[in-house]
């Protein structure tokens, strides 16, 4: 294990590490050997390091690390930089610049899974771990600076000098004097997975008796066909599904019908706003080949008011195309409830058996912490005798409560309350996105809500499921069908303490490695205190048109790769003379799992302005 130490003042820290088994220390400092050896105990520490076979290198610039080591010796497992400083009375700006150059240099000599340790005096880092915390502009902004080189803060803990044998800090204002390190923190950084660069993706499915190919909406490219619910998956969403299914199987005969569910639907959804649907269409020009689409030569439009025609290619795949006036429309399924209803109406339904459907569903929605453009839904439906539906509902709810309580107790000590709330007790504005959309699809009778006490991390009364009972004459005049729909993603988040839905979809292996097969655990974030950036955009709305806020949010999701966490209307203005309306929105960018720099955000903002001008026909101000 190769360890690189930078900016050593008297080499006392390096000397304390040189006895560690299996560790080769390369200790460096910025000054020459003559300058350093005059400091108290420096010569003794240097001699101790060399006697034990470690390396000591002088006059090393932390911004040019690869220049000091041969190619075969450039990879280090850990890099330490304790109390970096430009020297003398350098201010926060100069020290930020020092850290920026340092992190970029580290990226060239650190192993893929290596760590960078940076110790700073109390308040310098600018994170919530500093107590008291400085104002952001007066700190070194270490997490944002590190993000510019592709690093995320994965851990932070007190720098305990008293536990380091023989350590003595030195270098106050470039002199051989100690300085106050009470409350100092050690910041541990790791490499981030790179920001995604999504290429057009073609999805091929079987619909009715024909094969279909369509281009996936860009905002969903990294979320389609992820296989979270496959049998061998260790994703927490699959574990929640398995535990629920096992509990229900104790009370009901079960039948799974996931295999016959299609991603694409056609026709019209009653009561659902078209702006919430992902319509699948292509540009009105000649239908491109799959190769052309993959190379980005075809554009995917997301409109809800057009009809489609179909064209079969030489391989038998049907390409769905905009421009021809026929009655069929295609869209990604926004819910499994219509699938359940279709199964009932086709007669593929056994009374007395609990039928189970599960899979991802897709919806355009506004940007919030719990609003997901895709999530995994689980639907239970059961036909019971008329008059017994209430007892069936209560039995289903009891099984849900038992399952979730059992899961939650193994993960967290927080108090959990699961309740059944009548739908009439909620205003639409009180519902989360999941519940509000389900209410559009059908008449909901009950919401299943979860509460975690104030010491937990979740919002009070989060709706994780809905229940309704409906009468279908096609089955029997004496039977009533009870539906239960659960949002598996929300359940996994609440149980495992995951505060951001995007973390469920991360490609970083540090997420799934926390969940062994069949187990749920309290999630520990590997990206602490990620920096956030705010950008405003103002524009004139086209005259005579209603502004589509859902489309506005969807464009923000697309151009940022889901890096926008908040879109807030901060001002609106209407000219009395012309009636023109101007809106001003504030976008907040933040990643939950990746390094995100201010420069990358600025590029996203420029692209966002370009896209809303082109697709929403607004006039930028």
UniProtKB/TrEMBL annotation:
InterPro entries from the xrefs?
A: aa-tRNA-synth_II/BPL/LPL (IPR045864), BMT5-like (IPR019446), Fdx_antiC-bd (IPR005121), Fdx_antiC-bd_sf (IPR036690), SAM-dependent_MTases_sf (IPR029063)
Localisation per UniProt entry = Mitochondrion matrix
- GO MF, one annotated term: phenylalanine-tRNA ligase activity
In the Enzyme Commission scheme, what number(s) does this protein have?
6.1.1.20
GO biological process per UniProt: rRNA base methylation; translation
Which segments constitute the FDX-ACB domain?
528-621
Do the record's keywords include Calcium? no
**A single cellular component GO annotation:** mitochondrial matrix
> Which terms are listed as keywords in the entry?
Aminoacyl-tRNA synthetase, ATP-binding, Ligase, Mitochondrion, Nucleotide-binding, Protein biosynthesis, Transit peptide
Q: What protein family does this chain belong to?
A: Belongs to the class-II aminoacyl-tRNA synthetase family.
The protein depicted here goes by the name: phenylalanine--tRNA ligase
Q: Which organism is it from?
A: Nyctiprogne leucopyga
